[in-house]
Design a protein that fits this description.
Chain A: Pfam families: NLE (PF08154), WD40 (PF00400). Chain A: This is Ribosome biogenesis protein WDR12. Chain A: Keywords: Nucleus, Repeat, Ribosome biogenesis, rRNA processing, WD repeat. The structure holds two protein chains of two kinds. By secondary structure, chain A is mainly β. Helices cover 8% and strands 48% of the residues of chain A. The longest helix of chain A is centred in the N-terminal third of the chain and has 15 residues. Chain B is α+β, with helices and mostly antiparallel strands. Chain B has 14 helices and 33 strands. In chain B, the strands form nine sheets. Chain B has a five-stranded antiparallel β-sheet. Chain B is elongated and about 180 Å long. Classes of the chains: A mainly beta, B alpha+beta. Chains A and B meet through loops of A and loops of B.
Chain lengths: 423, 715
């Protein structure tokens, strides 16, 4: 079979071609089809500039020769095949490489600032240009996770969770460029692996190796919470004062039977926690009840939720990224698995702007940019790291961040193309 | 024959009447009369001839015919008058034929008079006396000699008188003696003449007029016929089937058992097919098949059974020139010998599919989860890593290396969190299995260090320190085999809490499950080799008075107060409470290197330097239940998983083999051992590969320490 009949369609009005069946070579690939569309567009508009396109057949990206793809997807080659085309997503452009002193355990970025947690027991604030703004020292152990709480014009609230079993709430005065530990959240009996702030920015939850999930208030206050343990020694007391007022959890959610590796707020009152006991549990933050459980068969390293497509993506101690529907009651239903990594997936993050895209970092030193419409191959491999990738983040401004065991934080600019904003 | 035929009688009546005077016997005897009067009856000559033929030797004496005569007379009353003339003395003995009138006793058995002197009575009623037996033997003899009638003289039973037998009587006796009939004229071989013959006679047999019923139809018959007709109409009577004129054959083997026939066929051994002769066998082979002199010499020097080919190809001018086969007689003889000597019994070869002999093991895929791929490499040690141990929480890993450091790692990221330089080769590390105690025992040189790594819960770390510091020295100093030395401030800063100074190099430390007791193995051949310590009381003791050979490895039983001691060849199980040897397991290995106890407590595995892994079932036997030879080189370490039915062995060939070892609670079911996966990754260095293996306490993950200075995690 040498020729196939195809009809091309697009959502983007700029690139509409005539809706007639075209005969295209069966073995044509994306570049061939892209040239064909460009020729058609050039014939229609004199001022057309060359644009790379990507092609979708039945919602799946075309990555192979057309006929091979259709054979694999069991699409009849006898009929007219409808091919949707979108402007090709541009490769992320590397911007900065921020050097740290030690492994980077976590990263979270806002429009202007990047907050990283580091294995040298500090959290660091960087500007997006890669300038070191602030080093926050206070933990006595490795900082495992960091989170922004609130950003005002003058000051910022931020959180750092550490292996020393505490979560510290810091206030960063931007004018004076000073940080102050407002509260020391004590209560976990193991290293705190993950923190997440809710959408109202007044609460946060933390998951720890001691199998507990705790909800804390993120509002700074002046008085110290009463401590249950009376045996406070002077030495400890002094230390506590240095690190701010001690805070105790609002609620403790117990139910996991192994360490909790990742927590997030999927809704205003819904917490999602991934654990080493092979489950993702969804909790009601208000009542503290367990709402549902998704059961996998591997240890979960990381979980991410996209409000755009309402899916959970999980990275676990195997090569796959799995997509879950958190609303399904029966649980343990994997919608899709994205397989291309060769090591454990340590970190996943959905795109805040695009419902199909996510990035993942893995122990195989590669960060991959995925489109869920192409589950066999990622859109781009970002192979800059020289050691394990431990954390990834994606800001709304289109900044991709990844940090790892090579002490480097890589930033990539990923401009959202005009066509996929609405897509 | 004697009875004259009634049909023939009536015509002869006229004949006899015609020739009345011709014969006295006429009319009495048909044949006789006919023969006599043949000349008279000319017209009936043919008939007479027939009769003559039928009765040839009929003429006989008048006496012999007497009974027949009488009968005839009685039957044929018309002839009566004529007979009177002939038998004049007919009534002389009319009273009784057999009666002797001289004796009147009648026809009775004469034995009745045996005991009497008389034998009867005469007509006058006088007794008839038996003749006197006055004659003696001499008289008898004289009479016998003189009387010529003596031999024919018999005694009359009725009268007792001696009567000489007449000639006729003698003749009768002789005839009877010869077996002949008494009657001379009787011919036993007379031809039989059927009274009724096949010939239809014109005259009826009787004169009786025909019955009336023979003229009217019979009602009974009519009834019978009508019944038959009705039955035929109704189809009850079927006409007889015409006989098929088909020749019938018999199946000779129909009764034979088919199995025996099949068996006979099965027993058939086809002769082996002999390959067709090739060019070399030809009488005129191509020259390349002919052997050169050297080849021929080599051929001759070979053993006759090994010669290839078994003959020497030779070339002849023509087929006519081919000589007779010289070994013909020899080979024929051998062939006969073969046939004669060959065993007639067929040996049944068991036809077993080799696939069936392989034990049916479940597929490894069905036994998930188990470690399959290498996930993480823990780099940092600069020399070979001898030993490792995982914290009970599964978050940390401790390893001891030849570079003189003990390193603590974060399991999930392979991050080395702490490194404690200890200054010499670390032989063994063991993390306290009690999750509420944060303590690691490190064996190096002649010391065992109890290290508090400061990882995990702060409270537990503090509690552990408190536990160790709360010891108070007893009043009286007890003599101990070791010295317990509290760590100095510098060492304390590194985490070391206590030093236990032995007198000989320590090779292994292991904790009891409760986390208070621990045991150390000392390299001290002949002396005390095992010590059991209690860390909270800082108390050590030597459990054995006598050491059982060179001790390789010791373990505490996870559930019972048992202590397992592996020496070179055997494993001894001691009961610590009763202080006695409970069991001795024979390993069948040359040199045991390592040992692990199943968390259930009933199974033990031992690795050995001769690359074997022995699985013991303590309930089953003191011999290994299974001896696994999967490794190519010495097995250095073995480990059981605490939760999953997995065990692993690390070897000098750089590989770790993970096996499924399911132990059933049912005592009757043996453990199921399935090799699952060979995990490679470690590079062999200095002839050493994997030196230690350990499982993650919760996840199906496996850690291995290698001679290449790395630790690896397989998940």
């Amino acid at each position: 079979m040498a020729q196939l009949t195809a009809r091309f369609r697009t959502e983007n009005r700029r690139f509409v071609v005539e809706d007639v069946p075209f005969s295209v070579p069966a073995t044509s690939e994306t570049t061939d089809l892209s040239q064909l569309i460009n020729k058609l567009l050039a014939a229609a508009h004199a001022d057309h500039k060359y644009v790379e396109f990507d092609f979708l057949i039945n919602g799946q990206f075309l990555r192979l020769p057309l006929v091979t793809h259709m054979e694999m997807e069991n699409i009849s080659t006898e009929e007219v095949v409808e091919i949707e085309y979108v402007e090709k997503y541009m490769a992320p452009q590397p911007e900065e490489c921020i050097f740290h002193d030690d492994w980077i355990s976590s990263v979270q970025a806002t429009e202007e600032w990047i907050l990283t947690g580091c294995y040298d027991q500090t959290a660091r604030i960087w500007s997006v240009e890669g300038k070191s703004i602030m080093t926050i020292a206070g933990h006595t152990e490795v900082v495992k996770d960091v989170a922004w709480v609130k950003q005002d014009s003058l000051s910022c609230l931020l959180l750092s969770a550490s292996m020393d079993q505490t979560v510290l709430l810091w206030e960063w005065n931007m004018e004076k460029n000073k940080v102050k530990a407002l509260h020391c959240c004590r209560g976990h009996a193991g290293s705190v692996e993950s923190v997440a702030v809710d959408c109202t920015r007044t609460k946060f939850c933390s998951g720890s190796w001691d199998k507990m999930l705790k909800i804390w208030s993120a509002v700074p206050t002046d008085e110290e919470d009463e401590m249950e343990e009376a045996a406070n020694r002077p030495r400890k007391k002094q230390k506590t004062e240095q690190l701010g007022l001690t805070r105790t959890p609002l609620a403790t959610l117990s139910g996991h039977i192994e360490a909790i590796s990742s927590v997030l707020w999927s809704d205003a009152e819904e917490i999602c926690s991934a654990s080493w006991d092979h489950t993702i549990k969804i909790w009601d933050a208000e009542t503290g009840d367990l709402k549902s459980t998704l059961t996998g068969n591997k240890v979960f390293n990381s979980v991410s939720y996209s409000p755009l497509c309402r899916r959970l993506a999980s990275g676990s101690t195997d090569r796959h990224i799995r997509l879950w529907d958190p609303r399904s009651k029966d649980g343990s239903l994997v919608l899709l698995s994205l397989t291309s990594h060769t090591g454990w997936v340590t970190s996943v993050k959905w795109s805040p702007t695009h419902e199909h895209q996510l990035i993942s970092g893995s122990l195989d030193n590669i960060v991959k940019l995925w489109d869920t419409r192409s589950c066999k191959a990622p859109l781009y491999d970002l192979a800059a790291h020289e050691d394990k990738v431990l954390c990834v983040d994606w800001t709304e401004a289109g900044l991709l961040l990844s940090g790892g065991a090579d002490n480097k934080l890589y930033c990539y600019r990923y401009p959202a193309t005009a066509s996929d904003v609405g897509a | 024959m004697e009875q004259p035929s009634p049909s023939g009688g009536s015509p002869e009546l006229s004949d006899s009447e015609q020739s009345e005077e011709s014969s006295v016997y006429s009319g009495l005897e048909d044949s006789g009369s006919d023969s006599e009067c043949s000349g008279n009856g000319e017209e009936e000559e043919e008939e007479e001839e027939e009769e003559e033929e039928e009765a040839p030797g009929s003429p006989s004496g008048p006496q012999a015919q007497a009974p027949g005569k009488r009968k005839t007379l009685e039957d044929d009353s018309p002839l009566e008058g004529k007979q009177d003339l002939v038998v004049h003395d007919e009534y002389e003995e009319d009273s009784s034929d057999e009666e002797d009138i001289r004796n009147t006793v009648g026809n009775i058995p004469m034995e009745w008079y045996q005991d009497f002197p008389h034998v009867g009575y005469d007509l006058d009623g006088k007794k008839i006396y038996k003749p006197l037996r006055s004659k003696d033997e001499l008289d008898l003899f004289l009479e016998k000699m003189e009387n010529p009638e003596y031999w024919r003289t018999v005694q009359d039973g009725q009268t007792g008188a001696e009567v000489p037998l007449s000639e006729e009587q003698l003749e009768l006796i002789r005839r009877l003696q010869r077996g002949n009939f008494g009657d001379v004229g009787f011919d036993p071989y007379e031809p039989a003449v059927d009274f009724f013959s096949h010939e239809v006679r014109i005259h009826p047999v009787t004169n009786r007029p025909a019955d009336k019923r023979s003229f009217i139809p019979s009602l009974v018959e009519k009834e019978k016929v009508s019944k038959l007709v009705h039955a035929i109409k109704m189809g009850w009577i079927q006409p007889r089937k015409p006989k098929e004129n088909v020749p019938t054959f018999y199946d000779l083997w129909a009764r034979e058992d088919p199995n025996s026939v099949l068996g006979r066929h099965k027993m058939h051994v086809p002769a082996p097919k002999i390959p067709l002769p090739g060019h070399a066998e030809s009488y005129n082979p191509p020259p390349e098949f002919l052997l050169s002199p050297e080849e021929q010499l080599a051929w001759e020097q070979q053993d006759p059974a090994e010669r290839r080919p078994s003959f020497i190809p030779r070339k002849f001018r023509s087929l006519r020139a081919v000589p007779a086969y010289s070994r013909f007689i020899h080979e024929r003889f051998e062939r006969c010998l073969d046939l004669y000597l060959c065993p007639r019994q067929r040996r049944m070869r068991v036809n077993v599919d080799p696939e069936d002999l392989i034990p049916k093991l479940p597929r490894p895929r069905d036994l998930q989860p188990f470690p399959t791929t290498q996930a993480l490499i823990y780099r940092g040690h600069s020399s070979l890593v001898r030993t490792l141990s995982v914290s009970p929480s599964g978050q940390w890993l401790v390893s001891g290396s030849d570079d003189g450091t003990v390193r603590f790692w974060e399991v999930s990221t392979a991050r080395c969190l702490r490194s404690i330089p200890v200054g010499s080769v670390v032989r063994s590390v063991a993390w306290n299995p009690n999750p509420s105690i944060c303590l690691v025992a490190v064996a190096l040189d002649e010391q065992v260090l109890l290290v508090n790594p400061g990882l995990g819960d702060r409270l537990l770390v503090a509690a552990t320190d408190q536990l160790l510091d709360s010891w108070e020295a007893p009043e009286e100093e007890r003599i101990q085999p070791v010295r317990w030395i509290p760590a100095g401030p510098e060492e304390r800063g590194k985490g070391i809490r206590l030093l236990v100074q032995h007198d000989k190099p320590v090779t292994q430390v292991t904790w009891h499950g409760k986390g208070d007791y621990w045991a150390s193995v000392v390299r001290n051949p002949g002396g005390r080799q095992v010590l059991i310590h209690q860390s909270s009381r800082r108390w050590s003791q030597n459990p054995f008075r006598k050491s059982p050979g060179m001790i390789q490895c010791v373990r505490f039983h996870p559930l019972r107060p048992y202590f397992l001691v592996a020496s070179q060849r055997s494993v001894r199980v001691y009961n610590l409470l009763r202080q006695e040897l409970t069991r001795k397991l024979q390993s069948n290995c040359q040199w045991i290197s390592s040992m692990a106890v199943h968390p259930g407590g009933d199974n033990v595995i031992c690795g050995s330097y001769d690359s074997k892994l022995a699985w013991f079932d303590l309930d089953l036997s003191t011999r290994p239940y299974r001896l696994l030879r999967h490794h190519g080189r010495a097995v250095r370490a073995v480990a059981f998983h605490r939760r999953f039915p997995l065990f692993a062995s690390g070897s000098d060939d750089g590989s770790v083999i993970v096996c499924h070892g399911m132990v059933y609670s049912d005592l009757l079911q043996n453990a199921l051992l399935v090799p699952l996966k060979v995990l490679r990754g470690h590079a062999a260095r200095l002839q050493l590969g994997v030196l230690d293996v350990a499982f993650h306490p919760q996840q199906p993950w496996l850690f291995s320490a290698g001679a290449d200075g790395t630790l690896r995690l397989y998940a």
